[in-house]
Fold each of these.
Amino acid sequence: MSHRFPEFTASGTPRELGREIGEQLGELIRGFCTSALEQVNRTMKVSRANADRVIHTSLPLAEAYAPDMVEELRGTAEAARVSLEDMLLLQVRNQLQADDAGCTSFSLWGESGRIVAQNWDNDPLLDPLTVVLTRRPQGKPALTTVTQAGLIAYIGFNEAGIGLCLNTLPAPSRTRGVPHYFTVRGIYESDSLEGAVAAVRRAERAIPANIMLTTPQGPADLEVTIDDVRVLTDMNRKQVTHANHCRHPELLAINDQFPELIGSRGRQARIDLLLTDDGGHDEIPRAMEALRDHDGHPRSICRHPNDDPAHGHWCTVISAIIEPAARRMFLTRGTPCDRAYEVYEMR
């Protein structure tokens, strides 16, 4: 298997952009649409009728939030020969289940660069559906993301200096709301931390999420609940770290209501320890070393299959180090302990 993700570029008006994506990624999108509900049902049972109810109640909110994004999905659906409902299923599938991904992420500002990084721990069956896609939307910042084919946005960066990683945050949720990936795309349409927070806050959200950022104003982490957005920053140390539990003082009580996701506290303590002293290292090699860490293997920052009954099949599917100022990402396709990071640049 190739250790490099396929790369694509699309541009134009929302409908044109969507059609280019659908034309290039049609086979992968059809595969994802076919398997999306099956993947949800690996952890819980959701009928297509129930999924359609979530789609139809969320669509008006999505159109009110970002009509251009819905128009892009219409273009993609046309060119990929799937229905708009199928495209929306991809966007709302994490409104149908409790967990999306367990990840360890951090944002660093140093003398040698400004990065945001993470290990994305999830089902390895998503690997064949994953691509690196550069979008050049008319009148908005270009963005490059590593993403499953068909999603409106995912992990990556824009040309305005925003870099973004995503973590699951166990907290209260609901089925009806603006899809999470729409708010992520909204962040890519901004050029500042203030704009990023506003893009998330103005949505009627369905699920909680953690969004790790590097911005022109510094490193920041957004703990997003359905009620508000809390911002974590530390400009004295010029870094922020996060696993999969709430860290903001106003949200700590939520942790008592939800089970810990794949050893979140242990990974949090470990990444904090690894990043305590940079030892004069450049940020990118320092990040690579931390993301390859095997303390507690196989339930480590570099995660491997194990005997956990719910998530033992999860492993590190993607390791990402994002450097927006250089308009590039360092990615591994699979666990970073046995894969070399490869460079992907905005095309």
Amino acid sequence: MEFLGKNIDRFKDIGNDMVEAAFLPDTWIQFAIIAAALAVGYVTRKWLSPKIVNALDHIDWPYRVEKAIARIANLVMQVVAAVILIFASQVALMTPPPFGSSLLVLASNLLVAWVIIRALVQIIHNPAMRHTISLVGWTIAALAILGILDETSAALDDFGINFGTFRVSVLTLIKGALSLFILVYLASFVASVLERKVQKAQSISPSSKVLIGKVLRILLITFAVLIGITSAGFDLSLLAVLSGAIGLGIGFGLQKVVSNLFSGMLLLMDRSIKPGDIIEVEGTFGWVDYMGARYTSIVTRDNKSFLIPNEDFVTQKVVNWSHGNTFVRVEVKFGVDYASDPHQVKALAEAAAKTPKRICEDPAPVCHLVGFGDSSLDFTLRFWIKDAEEGVTNVRGAVMLALWDTFKENGINIPFPRRDVRIMDDKAPKKAAG
């Protein structure tokens, strides 16, 4: 605490010096020059920024490059103000007697630091990450320019708690948070780049591409977290109790999340489902659009996305219409009147099934008499298609329309249920007693 007291006295001395300097005539003149420089920079930005944006619209550059240049164009105000202040500080030093220019130099240095940092972080696409890193970087640079970075670090380090031989201070927490923040973002960025590279590989199956991408992302983020924790000075052995608590929480509260995570990894490894497959699960029929760590996205023919937990694909029955290939058999069940000739019905149904273009000729459609119903002869018509990804309901409907037209032309009736209602009269006269 003695060192902390010295730092506080140091901050008090700096504050007192600033208060005393604020009443000097040179200080007010420097403040006026700084305000004028910022005003000129603001007017210049208002005039120049639209011209830069308009020029970018006529240049065929990548979208991210154009956006980065447009954001850098917003720094015109700071650049112009910094140039004016640097020039003014040099003029002040050459004016006899020498005019005070400490504030001018300080303000120009702060503006230059802000411009450099903001220009460097334009490579970061995420706005929140970009603003956070630039603000933190400029704060550290400002403290260094003001000459109080060491005192601030020492003061933050004095606020802490000792855990045996290990000490956790505010400075340690800030360093750890910044390290994790930057390293995890870099790991995610590198993982995204590697995933795009893997997706372009022609010799890797779609499911393997997804699996490799997810494994790379998990490994990189795990290494980033471990490096960030150790670089901040944390002893990983102290996390034994925390890891036990996390494991207990996973066992009780996060069991579904972990189950979905490992189910997704299992699906990618056994290749039972992969992006692009046509599947049917719980009455949902569609294409596998995306396989994530927690869920799989199924897009139906009406462009609805169903996010189904990965666990359901492991524990429930799933129909994969394209597992291996998209050559599938489709059934249409129907009934005809008992007055119809079943041999004729069989031949007409098989001929009608060949009408739609998507029906395969080999194996040819086949129709079977499967039962004698209450009011109809029951048939099952079976045919094959090679393009299940184009839909099954539509081709089934086309075959049923062909059956309807064929039966109409040949006088074959499709029966429908009839009910006869007989009303009994319970008020009939009773016989007289003999």
Amino acid sequence: MTTTRFAPSPTGWLHIGNLRAALFNYAIARQTGGTFVLRIDDTDPERSKDEYVEGIKEDLTWLGLTWDKLEFQSKRLDRYMAAKERLIEMGRLYECFETPVELDLKRKKQLNMGKPPVYDRAALSLTQAQKDAYRAEGRKGHWRFKLDQERIEWTDGILGDISIDAASVSDPVLIRGDGQVLYTIASVVDDTEMGITDVVRGSDHVTNTATQIQIIQALGGDVPRFAHHSLLTGPQGEGLSKRLGTLSLRDLRKDGIAPMAVLSHMARLGASDPIELRATVQEVVDGFDLAKFGAAPTKFDVEDLRPLTARYLATLPVSDVADAVSGAGVPDALAAQFWDVVKDNIDTLDDLPGWWSLFSDGAAGLVDDDDRAFVDEALALLPAPPYSGETWGTWTNAVKEATGRKGKQLFMPLRKAVTGRQRGPEMADVMALMQVKPKG
């Protein structure tokens, strides 16, 4: 059975880049009736926060991405220590004592000599006496996995055939000097023991995948199918790293972006198929095809989510937005009529209070100086409410008769005077909802 996972670190809020991995893995699992695991990578006790864990769950729930199992890596430290001991016994994990400064000097020396900055495995030649001396100095050893220096190959679900020479890669650190278990080993142990069959993640993990394949094989596990999606850039091709604070899912939610707009966009962004608005999560899943995605960096513009949100909202019945309509102050008796009038003229549900304020309190009229006398004369011909669907036609006919204006010169100044806007719903529908006489 297909089993996928999404393994975010609770060290910050989920952002739009995180969502690609979550959505892709979710879609693969749901297409095959498989299992989707939410695995919280909380092995860093100092940076991991409970509020971020709750935020991850809230964001995924908002999007409709439900998980079948919830795991916490902090509760599996014994499994990682067991794997550590097995690898030590195999001679595949060795203790190192270089400081960050010493490692940096080694890298600079190698680069100056025109060599790749690969760890030189100096720790393998340390005697027990040398190790004891380092410990006596107060140094704490970190642990590296000894790679077999051969080519590591796999067929990537997006990138195609990949081949990496392990001799060009430093032996990865699996456990830090302070004892913290790092992603590379924790992910391997979990993927192996949880039966993960497919892993989709960003292309920045390609080298990680190569080293993890050897660790999986050393521990006797089955290597999952890997796929690495492209990384997102800004609309001009710039990196998103400095903008992620404005691209968190919780901020998109606060800005009124519809979850189906987000899912519809992200399920096709970077693929050869065009982006299509979907009505349900299942439709997103059904239309997802990993093979259609390419390797090139993918441009993302948050503004593209706004028209999709508007289009999605326009498809909804009033029952789906009842809370938002009520929250805008609309009486229940007028809710359906109100929604039918404004739903094609909003970007987000946050626009609803403004529309209801127009109907209930009147708007500050938008009147050009050249039209002031005309508008004043026209408003004098408009009776007090209540109004109906026929009010607009009756009123504009009377104004036309009195002033001689017609066409755009008649209708546009009156629309602007009544609504304070140059465009919007049919004015007959607007007048039918007006609770007060327009201010002009």
Amino acid sequence: MKIKIALLQLLPCGGLREQMEKGIRACERAKEMGADIALFPEMWSDGYALPQDEQALWELAVTADSGFVEAFGALAAELQMAIAVTFLESHEPKPRNSVVLFDRRGQRRLHYAKVHTCAFDLEKVLDPGEDLYVTELDLGGDVVKVGCMICFDREFPESARLLMLKGAELVLAPNACPMEINRLAALRTRAYENMMAVATCNYPAGQPDCNGHSTLFDGIAWLQEEPWTRDMCVFEAPEEEGVYIAELDLDQLRRYREHEIMGDKYRRPETYGLLTAETRGPAPAR
């Protein structure tokens, strides 16, 4: 099965209603282009606006069952297309940077809040999420196991590793930052080391500190029938605003995972204790 993922590389356009209406139009365009899944950039509800004033921040936040979020659930059912919608979530004690994934019937399949918030910068006003999740997404012809991570989550190998261990085949990654060689390399590495696909949707050039280059890395580093390594980046958008379709060959990925050596096959978790220790610094010598 081949999955078409629409990367909605959009510029913000105003308030919540304007964001919703533009997002709906983009999803409708994605469906016309044959998409199975539509993915928004990070915190689409307010265009990644993060006022540091507490009252102003709360005024922008919406609940996970708000009209804004539910509109995309209804749209997913209408279009028969999965939609991953992103938003500044109203949550106690502080708002969160969140995504909800609706399936093609409009049912919620996943609700994730960014675990690794950029607490060194504007996101210090947000609460981090508690866990990473994987769900089964019925696309009509097959079921794919999907997880999410958001922007800075990418910089932590543990994020993608946990999703892989929970069964993820495809990771949807909303984003809001410059996609340059090092961040693209991190996405490539997360896909490579876990043998899973990573689809990232960024804001286009014109949004502050963003430059497009939404991508799909399919996680397949080499094929038996090909003599050398292959480029896992099977799609990279330009800088300009647009709805871009990236195609993932899920059957090929599954065959690759059956016989290749990455992922969980040769891990030695009994040696990794320091990864979950509260203390910092090197392990004591023996």
